[in-house]
Structures are given as C-alpha cells and as structure tokens.
Amino acid sequence: MSDRKIPDENLRPALEALSSLDPDIARAFAEHGLPPERSQEAGFDGLIRMIISQQVSVQSARAILGRLLEQVGVITPQEILKLDDEGMKAAGLSRPKQRYARGLAEDVLSGKLQLDLLPGMDDEAVIDHLIAVKGIGRWTCEIYLLFALRRPDVMPAADLALQEAMKHLKGLRQRPGPAEMYQLSELWRPYRSAGARFLWHYYRHAGIA
After folding, report:
1. For burial by CB atoms within 10 Å, which of 49, 60, 82, 209 has the most?
2. Domains of the chain listed by start with CATH number
3. Choice among 22, 107, 153, 159 that is catalytic
4. Which part of the chain is the HhH-GPD domain (predicted)?
C-alpha cells in the first residue's frame, strides 16, 4: 500500500456527506481533515500482501514484504511455489502464512480462484469467492474490496484499529465488536468505505494508537 501522505481529495464528497449524517464524524473531520491517499493492487500480488499484513504491524509487514521480494523478484503464483520452507521462513512468513501463500498460489493456478472475475461481482459474491481460500477470512475480503476493488460501501468490522477508533469517536465505554461495528456504521451507508478510511486516519491522529 502506498505510504504517500497526500490528502485523498477523492474522499472529500463522501466525508462531507457523512458529516451531514453524523455529528461525530463532522467534528472529527473538521479537526483532522482528509485521510492520506492509500491504494492496493488487485490480483494475486495484492492478496499475498494482505496475507502478510494479517495480525502484524505495518512496519513488520513492510519488512517481510521486502525480504520476500528480494527472494522472488516478483510476486506470482509460480514464484511463490518455487520458494521452499527455508526461503519463506527467511522472509519472515510464519508457518500458517506459508501454507496460506502456497494454497492461494495453487488455487489461482488450478482455476479454483478466478481473480479476474472479481471486479464484475457484487460485494458479497466477491467475499464468497475469496473466503473459500484457506487463510482468507472476512477481514481480508473486506480489505480487498475496499482498497483493491475500490468499493464504496465496505466496513471491515473485525479490524481492531477501527474498533478502537469507533470507541473513541462515539465515546463508548468498551471497544465495539464486529456486530456492533456494523450496527454503528449502518447510518453511514452508502459511504462506509470512506468512513472506514477516516477511522484509520482518526486512530493515527487522535492520540488513540
């Protein structure tokens, strides 16, 4: 994902609409402004990067990705399957992530996973197709929808940073779980992707992290 800290002007119309719907968003948006530009390539490369990012810090994910790229040059199913256990371990991939990466590569090469069809599917169909791959849960599916396919109304409700940001934004006593995150963000339809992007931004800039 891009690290450029350029404000994403594409989000302004959606965040202004959200501000008219939710006074908490209006207050926080006035204070913290637009989130930075952020994107993710679609396809196999993007999914491998998302698997790497699961349950590790941004800094750790970046380091693992760098070491992996040193070994394979380019992230393709064929190159991932050429890499042995020691090579994956040297890159920093845990044993489960080694299995997930290989399984994803095998599913793409066998045709079980058809990534080129995803842009033409609706959000739930994309989730159903991706979640059949071992190691890809709903969080990864929603991140792929949001950043790779640029869908406008996605809330990755299991994301801990988003949950902490929502707790702070709404003055809640406890961090909301996924079900409550979906409920709290229902008002934000059809702009939940912009809302999620803003929550990450808020998490980093409101003294929460």
Report:
1. 49
2. 9-37+154-205 (1.10.1670.40), 44-148 (1.10.340.30)
3. 159
4. 52-204
